[in-house]
């Protein structure tokens, strides 16, 4: 019988799913953006809201990896769950981004376990906060808001790489040790956490490879993944295009 924890307000997930779906449809059908660009709108909305929400939770609540989730933590997870469910569907059915969909499904699995059991809300708030810090910087140069070859683009790429590598390869593993040692954390959350760390390690390797290329002074983009710009998903594996201003100017001329 479906009997989730009382702290999970299921209507929060359903309403949030409707809101995120409306954002996507408005961007794609109303503003006439591509499916890829519409998915960016979803990611931006989720990233900004979750960063602030999790930041407030971490600033207000005590460091606690054993106690049940508070209503605020559960509602935050319920809201985030709606985004990851929708974007997993989009990655799989529309963008054909199977790597991104696998990442999202893994996150959904962990969040569902946390919401159903009523535990691990604080732990996942920590992870989401760390993970979303790098997201806005990724969008700046991948969308072209920061013009390629400009100092703004270079700064945004450096910030993204630094926040991603420090957050997911140093802070996240430290948090994972606390999460996995907690006797109240559901096993599904622990497994989900370890899988996400593995995925992040693969992405970090790609970032380091591009950084190494940049340091050597080479002006080459990573190999084409076979997807057009409108088909790639920002929520999938991060592709860091660190280009020198000299190289970008040479292309324009």
From TrEMBL:
The chain crosses the membrane at residues 6-27, 39-59, 74-95, 107-131, 151-175. It is a multi-pass membrane protein. It comes from the Eukaryota. It is found in: Membrane. Keywords: Membrane, Transmembrane, Transmembrane helix. It holds the Pfam family TRAM_LAG1_CLN8. Residues 32-216 form the TLC domain. The keyword Kinase does not apply. One of its GO terms (cellular component) is membrane. This is TLC domain-containing protein. It comes from Perkinsus olseni (Perkinsus atlanticus).
């Amino acid at each position: 019988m479906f009997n989730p924890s009382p702290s999970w307000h299921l209507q929060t997930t359903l309403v949030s799913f409707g809101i995120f779906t409306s954002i996507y449809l408005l961007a794609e059908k109303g503003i006439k953006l591509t499916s890829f660009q519409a998915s960016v709108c979803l990611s931006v909305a989720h990233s900004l809201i979750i960063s602030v929400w999790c930041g407030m939770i971490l600033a207000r609540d005590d460091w606690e990896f054993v106690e049940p989730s508070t209503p605020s933590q559960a509602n935050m997870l319920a809201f985030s769950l709606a985004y990851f469910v929708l974007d997993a569907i989009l990655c799989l059915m529309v963008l054909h981004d199977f790597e991104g969909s696998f990442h999202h499904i893994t996150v959904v699995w962990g969040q569902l376990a946390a919401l159903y059991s009523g535990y691990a809300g604080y732990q996942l708030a920590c992870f989401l906060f760390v993970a979303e810090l790098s997201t806005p910087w990724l969008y700046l140069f991948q969308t072209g808001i920061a013009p390629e070859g400009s100092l703004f683009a270079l700064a945004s790429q450096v910030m993204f790489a630094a926040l991603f590598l420090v957050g997911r390869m140093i802070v996240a593993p430290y948090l994972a040790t606390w999460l996995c040692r907690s006797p109240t954390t559901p096993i599904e959350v622990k497994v989900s956490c370890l899988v996400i760390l593995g995925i992040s390690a693969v992405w970090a390797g790609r970032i380091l490879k591009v950084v190494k290329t940049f340091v050597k002074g080479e002006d080459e983009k990573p190999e084409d993944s076979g997807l057009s710009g409108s088909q790639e998903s920002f929520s999938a594996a991060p592709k860091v295009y660190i280009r020198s201003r000299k190289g970008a100017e040479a292309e324009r001329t």
